[in-house]
Amino acid sequence: MLNFILRRLALIVPTVIGISLCAFFFVRVLPGDPILAMAGQHGVTPERYEILREQFGYNLPIWQQYLDYLGNVLQGNFGVSLSTKRPVLTEFMALFPATIELALVAMLFAVAVGIPAGIFAAVKRGSWFDQFTMGVALTGYSMPIFWWGLLLIIFFSGYLGWTPVSGRISLTFFLRPITGFMLVDTLLYGNWPAFVSALRHLILPAIVLGTIPLAVIARQTRSAMLEVLGEDYVRTARAKGLSPRRVVNVHALRNALIPVVTTIGLQVGLLLGGAILTETIFSWPGIGKWMIDSISKRDYVVVQSGLLLIALIVMAVNLLVDVLYAVINPRIRVK
Amino acid sequence: MSEIQATPAPVKAEFGAGLREFWHYYSVNRGAVIGLVVFTLLVLIAIFAPLIAPHSPDQQYRDALLVPPMWDAMGDPRFLLGTDPVGRDILSRLIHGARYSLFIGLFVVVGALFVGVILGVLAGYFGGWVDAMIMRVMDIILAFPSLLLALVLVAILGPGLFNAMVAIAIVLQPHFARLVRAAVMAEKNREYVTAAKLSGASHIRLMLITILPNCLGPLIVQATLSFSNAILDAAALGFLGMGAQPPTPEWGTMLASAREFILRAPWVVTFPGLAILITVLAINLIGDGMRDALDPKLKRS
Prior knowledge:
Structural class of chain B: mainly alpha
Shape of chain B: elongated
Oligomer: heterodimer
Distance between the termini of chain B: 23 Å
Number of helices of chain B: 13
Strand content of chain B: under 5%
Shape of chain A: globular
Largest sheet of chain B: none
Radius of gyration of chain A: 24 Å
Helix content of chain B: over 70%
């Protein structure tokens, strides 16, 4: 097992170096001058410009700049945001819990609805329930989620007035973050109205972000289940006279879930991409909105390090999924 | 539906028979047939947009700002789906928007397919360091969330429809490369390839004429899925202000400029999104049908 993990890690090293190169050079070729961007509308004198160039190392050869950047990153120094003048890592850490909270609840929603729906569709193959569920799933899979979010706002916030339009919690509550997860923090403070407010803010964005994963999971569960239900050991279990419920829950489901777990893991990149749109629509203060704002503000340092951090997270999760997959399916390890 | 069945004239007997067999399996899937019909209609709408659209997509009727759809009490029979904040007919803009979306899908798929197939064939055929190099680059592209990478690429190239299409093609292309590589690796040690090699076929001939046609099935399915992804991503970029720029009647861009009116005039937001959804859904239905028809495992004899 350790061997397997080490081999996967070795494979990742060149990719990580490549990612850091990409993040670095992408930002170098962005139009505009970082120093002028930093100086804002007031501009700088030519002398001051030279001093700043030297101070930030922009006068060094490009490979030197890259190595310096890499050295800093390895020490946990991701640079300082040009617009807020705060360390990028501090900003990232402050905003990341909001995105994780949103993504986790979205995934919970997707799994809680998608897996049962997929199982029932497979067990009742060809029934109206199966056809209906798969129709809905394909619609969800085809959904432009930015539009879906706007529709939900029109209906639930505008027409029914049930949910707020934007933000994480009503402005009347001010809680010092403990974990950064609003649902957890409000409970830790024992502030029930604040918890309800946080939940009401979270529900629509979570549904929007969870829609595509939900569709993918439902479809994947159904097809994995159908494959397993045709296996000999399921027929054996049926022939033994086990109840249909036991055959499905114990014999089929466990094996069907292996590919589903992988699918869930592979949704992480998609979730972070979807978070950009969801957070923009609902003004959710997470890293997706942060990246969009930084791109439009031409905050090079944030874009560069944000890209790197996000790609590293996606890779780490994918590695975790691979390892988990090897744990539940020993056949993979040998390959 | 019979007219669709008859359209493609058989080039050779073998090809025609293959096509008939494909259609036999494809037409079993009712959803796939519906998807194909809707898609055909969309293509016709796109081609004949100037003839069908009741108004010019850019004509601003200053006396008719934010008019609701015709069936509303406040509606105006001149504007079937209402007008937008500057008095343009939404239906006409949607009809012209079909041109953009379908062109985006086509351009992106052709671009991604072209580059992806070349890289995938090279990697799979030669293996070794060529393979390692190409696939590591693909891994890097895939490590970024695709929408984020497309956004940054567009920020580098400058906002606009063409750059957005290029960015989306770059982001989607690794999927083709991976697929082709795997298929080529599976095929290249088969007897027919060895036979071709022994009879003196060149590398290029082996790669493109001997091996590639046998990897087409999964490629076609992937191309269909990428077509719908491209439309969605381009609309998302347009929505974020990084794709087509106003006043282009691109559906995502239309949504972006209508956002502030969602509570006052929901129809401005509803119809462009619905257009995106219907188009993408139709293409995905086709993709599902193709996958089932081309997958020999699922074929019932």
